[in-house]
Specification:
Helix 3 (52-69) links the parallel strand 2 (41-44) and strand 3 (75-78). This protein has helices at 9-14, 28-37, 52-69, 99-105, 108-124, 155-170, 202-207, 211-218, 245-255, 270-273, 278-288, 299-314, 320-337, 357-368, 409-413, 431-440, 460-470, 503-513; strands at 17-19, 41-44, 75-78, 80-82, 85-86, 129-130, 175-181, 196-197, 223-226, 229-230, 261-263, 293-295, 370-374, 386-392, 420-426, 446-451, 476-479, 494-497. The chain has an 8-stranded parallel beta sheet. A 6-stranded mixed beta sheet has the order 13-18-17-16-14-15. By secondary structure, it is an alpha/beta fold. It is elongated.
Length: 528
């Protein structure tokens, strides 16, 4: 560490933090964090984005500010997973498919191409790191936080798609981040809200949860994000992986040989902040072996966390050598990725066809839509009256961000067919609203009910509506996000999964319903 021996302790520690702020311009929060606390990384959320042009200017201004207080550039990151998790929803950024849609399409070249396109666009606006791909194996039907963010429930396929995405991002000089280590797929609690345990034995973890991370390491992934999840088979103490030296140093560093950056998930998530507090958790995460500490939202928590780590070093609770080793990894990483750095050349096994992006997205949508069963209701008969029930996604959550440009199925279907009526509902409709819809449906209508589940369980109002409609109609049910919706409703006459409601998917869905498209997606999960 002699090359960075001139850094003060405060400068060293600051470089190990990645923080968010609330403005679309440089504000007091991020100014203080950079100038007074020397933070080395920034994370963008939708709150920071007005346009691609504005975000490009913001990135440049932040780098200019950092250059005045440090010889190291900022590492600017974002959660741009694709599908329903996309922080930048503006013209100039391609609305790439999400992981489960790509898993249903089953083509690794598609996964690589989407990551490559997105990586080039992120780099152009001053972003150096994408907190993607998710390589969790989603094998819990009640998982409220991963779900369609995963490529599916088959560990080998998840690993292969994850490696393809890593190659795509890093081919454009974007640091990819495999998450959430050691695996968040088999959980029924959202770690944003509470503590989670994965109780499986070591042999099972090796075969399922850890396999995609091993392949990500072999693919040369730059960073791995930790999970706020307890793994008794790895860590005997009841502490989450983020705070466990057995998990981060013993397993990830020593056993699996990972030499890149270990970044925590946000410490303000309730699985960490409630039992430990952000400041104490930051100290424990550094002790455990994390290189980058993510604190996304609150200035007071960010400052307290940085100061707590500095004080822990001063008092001898953290050996300064641990700080120096983490800083060395961060510095090497910044020299490799920040700015206009040469891209990786490790992606030759994937093909990239320079077709127009809208053509590619439409092709992937066609290949991902999955008809689970069809009792002769699809395609629609030409003169058939159609009544569409469409859930509007209006509420943003940590894992669910509605697109600003989205057409409903009824709007698009109405361009191809006469006699299309549509009723829009919220994702949490009341029983009274459901009863009003029942009165609106005519006897001869073919009813298409689109469902939308973002929290693991189909909302009660949507389930009630389907149950009542099923008493008099043979329904076509389209799961716009969670394929597991089928497990909670009476068997419909036809069941279709789209995994997301992006514009390309809605166009392809309409073409499939009218018989212009023969969908070929395969379920990446079992509906049992």
């Amino acid at each position: 560490m002699s090359s960075w021996g001139h850094f003060t302790l405060e400068q060293k520690v600051g470089q190990l933090f990645m923080c968010g702020f609330h403005g679309q311009q440089v504000d007091e929060q991020i100014t203080r964090l950079i100038e007074d606390y020397h933070v080395g990384g920034v994370i963008y959320f939708r709150r920071n984005v007005e346009s691609v042009e504005q975000l490009t200017r913001l990135s440049a201004e932040l780098q200019k500010m950092a250059a005045k207080s440090s010889e190291l550039p900022l590492m600017i990151s974002v959660d741009q997973e694709g599908g329903m998790v996309a922080r930048i929803d503006k013209d100039g950024i391609t609305r790439v498919p999400g992981s489960m849609a790509l898993g249903a399409a089953g083509n690794l070249d598609y996964t690589y191409q989407c990551a490559r396109i997105l990586g080039e666009q992120l780099k152009r606006i001053g972003i150096d790191m994408n907190l993607a791909p998710v390589v969790d194996v989603n094998n819990n039907v009640l998982n409220p936080v991963i779900g369609v963010r995963s490529y599916g429930e088959n560990a080998e396929k998840v690993a292969a798609h994850g490696a393809a995405a890593i190659a795509g991002y890093q081919s454009q000089g974007i640091a990819a981040t495999a998450k959430h280590f050691p695996g968040h797929g088999d959980t029924a609690v959202d770690s944003h809200l509470g503590m989670v345990t994965v109780p499986h034995e070591w042999e099972r973890l090796e075969q399922v949860e850890l396999l995609p991370f091993r392949q990500a390491i072999e693919a040369g992934v730059d960073a791995i994000m930790t999970a706020h999840v307890i793994f008794p088979a790895i860590e005997p103490e009841p502490i989450p992986a983020t705070l466990s030296r057995n998990v981060l140093h013993g397993l990830l560093r020593e056993q699996m040989g990972f030499k890149g950056i270990i970044i925590t998930d946000c410490l303000e998530m309730h699985a960490i902040s409630k039992p430990y507090g952000v400041a104490k958790a930051a100290v424990r995460a550094v002790e455990a072996g994390a290189d980058l500490i993510l604190v996304s939202h609150t200035l007071e928590e960010q400052v307290a966390a940085i100061e707590a780590v500095v004080e822990a070093v001063r008092h001898g609770d953290i050996d300064e050598q641990i700080i120096d080793q983490a800083l060395e990894r961060v510095v090497s990483w910044k020299q490799k990725r920040c700015g206009d750095q040469p891209s990786d050349q490790s992606s030759m096994k994937y093909s990239f066809s320079p077709v127009p992006e809208d053509v590619l997205l439409d092709e992937i949508a066609c290949k991902s839509i999955t008809v689970v069963h069809n009792d002769g209701l699809l395609p629609l008969k030409p003169e058939q009256n159609v009544f569409v029930i469409w859930p509007e996604v209006v509420q943003r959550t940590e894992v669910d961000e509605p697109w600003s440009h989205s057409d409903s199925l009824g709007m698009v279907l109405g361009q191809y067919k006469k006699h299309v009526r549509e009723h829009k509902i919220t994702t949490q409709p009341s029983y009274e609203e459901a009863e009003q819809i029942l009165q609106s449906v005519m006897e001869g209508d073919q009813v298409i009910v689109c469902t939308y589940t973002s929290a693991g369980v189909l909302p009660k109002g949507q389930r009630y509506l389907i149950e009542r409609l099923s008493e008099k109609h043979s329904l076509i049910v389209v799961a716009l996000r969670n394929p597991y919706d089928l497990l909670e409703i009476p068997r419909p006459g036809a069941y279709v999964c789209t995994y997301e409601n992006t514009p390309s998917v809605v166009r392809a869905l309409s073409s499939m319903i009218t018989g212009e498209l023969d969908p070929s997606g395969s379920l990446p999960v079992r509906l049992s």
